[in-house]
Amino acid sequence: EKAAAALGITLTARGQHAGQPIPMCGVPAHAAEAYLAKLIRAGFKVAVCEQVEDPAEAKKRGGKSIVRRDLVRVVTPGTLTEDGLLDARGSNRLAAVAVRSGQVALASVELSTGEVECLSLGREGLAAALAAVGPSEVLVPDRLFADEVVAEALKAGGGFVQPMPQALAEPSASEARLKRLYGVETLDGFGVLSGAEIAALGLIAAHLEVTQAGRAPALSAPRRLGEADVMSIDPATRASLEIERSLSGGREGSLLAAIDRTVTAPGARLLAARLARPLLDPAAIDRRLDAVAWFCERRPVRADVRAALRGAGDMARSVSRLALGRGGPRDLAALRDGLAAAAAAADLVASQADPLGEPPSEIAEALAALRLA
Prior knowledge:
43% of the residues lie in helices and 16% in strands. It has 15 helices and ten strands. The mean pLDDT is 90.
């Protein structure tokens, strides 16, 4: 009944239960993604059930046996992976907030690419951190809604707020879920995570267990951010600066739209992420500037690298879909083309190396990573 009203389609009925007609509505299978997008934008979570048994097996149980169906996925704003439901040049992050012993932690995952981050910070910095992440969905233990500072930060941060039982943020249960998610015996390999960070990551793990129906996504190790590493920009200032979006809410007219000349979707997302969280460490800023200067001084190689990268697909999102069993031939082709483009770009850059010294550290590290791959 709710879906029919939200989608503007006819509500019908089939059969009866307890003497009442069973309400139904349907959409063409080939157009399901468009209708799914409408439901998500309307604030719904959508449970996806599929046939998980061969009809021949059902017949063995008797002529009128129902073919078994099961829940295979729950679609929420922060767990989208389909290209048709995502902005290719924008992020779609699922975030979680937790508080332990007075310390606040913000964790986020981009399920479509597998990137995971976590950050410990003070209560007063939560609003700015959430605005920088720009999550589509935020998981919050229900107990925190009584915290005025957290509640205000959630209101200013945007995104669909999903209340979670407080028990899911308890340290021991969170740690167990994280180990299960990553398939590890200990979290020591991720560095020294605080209790609040483990709780926030544990909320994400719990949400993924339910929404992905037990399928393990391909996630990177949590990358820990320091509150002092990037500039804190409060939501009001961020909006008035029009960094990623103009005051009208669109991308056009923003700083990002004015300077974005990237030729790939992952590059566009990385540029947006860097603009959203400007660095504060002079050494890190200089490393980026050195890499930019190297390419500025070599216009022909820059043009050749851009031409090579144009043929690359969105490998990260393809890998994520394949890991979750939702990929197809197009995703395999994206991996093939992406690897070929990466090799071509690496060869072009390596051929321009200065015989008197190594290229800047950011470029040298990228080349080393590509050679290892």
